[in-house]
Amino acid sequence: MAEAADFQGTSASPARRWLRRTGALLAGAPLLAGLLQLPAATPADAAGQESPQAASGAGSVSVAVDSLTPSAPTEGDTVSVTGTVTNNGKQPVTDAHIDLRVGPSLDTRSSIDALAKKSDDVQGPAGEAVGGKYTEKFSKLTPGVAEPFTISVPVDELDLGPDGVYQLAVALSGETAAQPWDQVLGIQRTFLPWQPEEAATKTKTTFLWPLVSDVHMTAETGSNEQQTPVFSNDDLAEEISPGGRLDQMVSLGKGLDVTWVIDPDLLASVDAMTKNYQVRGEDGATTSGRSQAVAKQWLSELQQAVAGKEVVALPFGDPDLASLAHNGTTVTGSLSHLKEATDAVDNTVPTILHVKPSTDFAWPVDGAVDPSIMKVATSAGADKVIARSDSLQDDLSYTPSAARPIGGGTTAVVADARMSTVFQGNLTKASASTLAVQRFLAQSLTLGLQTGKQRSVVVAPQRTPSVNQAQTMAEALEALQGGNWSESQDLTAAAKVKPDPAANRKVPPASVYPSSLRKQELPRAAFGQIARTQGKLDNFKVILTDQSRVVTPFGRAMNREMSTSWRGRGVAAAGYRGDVESYLDGLIEGVKLIEKSETKLSGRSAMIPVTVQNNLVQGVEHLKLRLTSQNPTRLKISGNAYEEQPVAVNGGHSQSVKFTTSANANGRAEVEAQLYTEDGQKYGEPVTFDVKVTEVTPTVMLVIGGGVLLLVLAGFRMYTQRKRAAAREAAEDTAGEADDDVDNPVGAPPNPEAPGDRLKEESEDGSRADAPQQPSDPAPDTAAESADPSGTGERVDR
Fold first, then answer.
1. pLDDT class of 25 with cuts at 50, 70, 90
2. Residue 98's closest CA among 172, 158, 189, 152?
3. What predicted TM-score, i.e. pTM, was given to this entire model?
4. Which one of 112, 122, 233, 773 is least enclosed by Cβ atoms within 10 Å?
């Protein structure tokens, strides 16, 4: 009858398959009894003992199952298995043949885990071989050479029983020169879910599809009006390019019923790439980014993929809730960053994706929770926390629904750990990917068959699946959604399912939090540096005329400093925080006081200028410049120890502020100039300089005053004397003209020695000698001068 079924395409009924298995067991019973009565192993038997590879569990031939289709067969399907066999031994394998073997059903989820750990153990049970024509033969397997195989078997020939998960093994048997008898040399076990009919009660499955990446944008922006962003590297362009990780996540998730879980920072970063952006190279120089078209295409595809689907938005930057709970709550202001990251969702996701996301969910790393994590996770407004069943454990014989209230209005949505972690690890090989798919389906079906009640299960895979992991996830989910025992459900609906009263609702203590996760957390020093940066930003922004140019990029950068993506990358995280703080310091130093050299002050008072320089592209205001005398007894500023004046400087300009000073004594006085914000906080570094005071004393003032007075008097006397001399000269000229008319006849030459022709010299007492006599003068004492020529040796008056 079996042959008739093989050749005519008929299928055996379940009852017939049961009779066949029972008959084979009864036929083999006498043989088994005879084997049990055999004596101890003979030398010939000893020579045929298992090879070292078999003794250790693995065979000398490796069997890889690269594909199994369909993953969950139903009545009338043909199961096709493809893969390769490789002889890892040193001797050729002859008379080799590979066949399929169906083992017993696996009734518990733990039995599936156990089989997965020993999937290539040749010593374990392998089940009954299908045999017949469903065997592929190899005349010889050369060491080190991989040989492909394909076996296709009608599902009816597998003799599957009731609904459940069956062990399906691909075994290679053959002989070697050292062991010349037929034996199993290699095996690979996998899982075959069997649910041929629609389940009466289907499991509701929620699958989270995460779109999360590393931190790529810096706090630095260009000085232009558009504030061109600067990226720390160009890795994001690779991820969203065709074939990249994020490109695959979008294209694969487009056709699946999933709940999209998105980090708004990823959307903001890709959106920034659609415009002009800069990329910083390893040498520190920046170049123009060239992936605008790729960014636009990726966002367009994502918008189409999420249309009509549920979107859950994480806080901006996907902050590490566990690190914040364990190391950040003692640092002032840390929780406020989580609130800001949550509020930033409204300005990113709806604007870019044109959908309204849910912000009610918090997702700690790997779903590991403790009381402090729960408290922090809900502090920013979320009232649902995505935990995992290996953290919030249940002591039940079945898997309860995901949702359960834990008090305080908070709901823990517990993801299934087995189904969530099956896609981790290296899935680059097709055999590993196929095993992961079958294991996922097996766990899902076994869960559904545990009770007759409908339950809700949530699958939360790793945050950043690789391309191969994403492809495996999509393949498993397609098979699940095409199966007969599960139906899709959104995360919000899963959180509202009536909780199982027997499910655990007690959050585990901090003492059981995994040490492997705690070692990867951000240290307290990281949150201290973030708080220091925030303090600098708060002091800086109050002086800006356009605060948004600085507050927004630095606020988002500090959200990124708390990102979950920094786990396991402590050095890179510290470098990013240092770059953010250093860049802010550079902007702060753009508004500063110009250094001054020693200033000399002569006199009792003078004006001292102090220059404020603004190298920013925007103006600054709400600043005060205080000039303080460190020795007010010698030098005062506007009559006091210090004076303040308001300062406002346009971008790219400088301004000098003048202060009135007064000196009381000679010597040096130290003066300090310091900028302050309006709320009294110091801004920038102070500038100190010396003022050398040279005060003028009263005695010196009297001497100088007397000298000035003498100069004035001397000048006045010279003026009066010159005026009198001019008057006399005018009078003599008049008298001389009259004498000339009398003494000189007409036509006679004038006498050059005439008394009126010149003025006489003044004596030392100011009187004039031999000056011409005026009409009112008395008569001369001497006789009248003779008109005759002078004798020799006589003095002639001129």
1. very low
2. 172
3. 0.79
4. 773
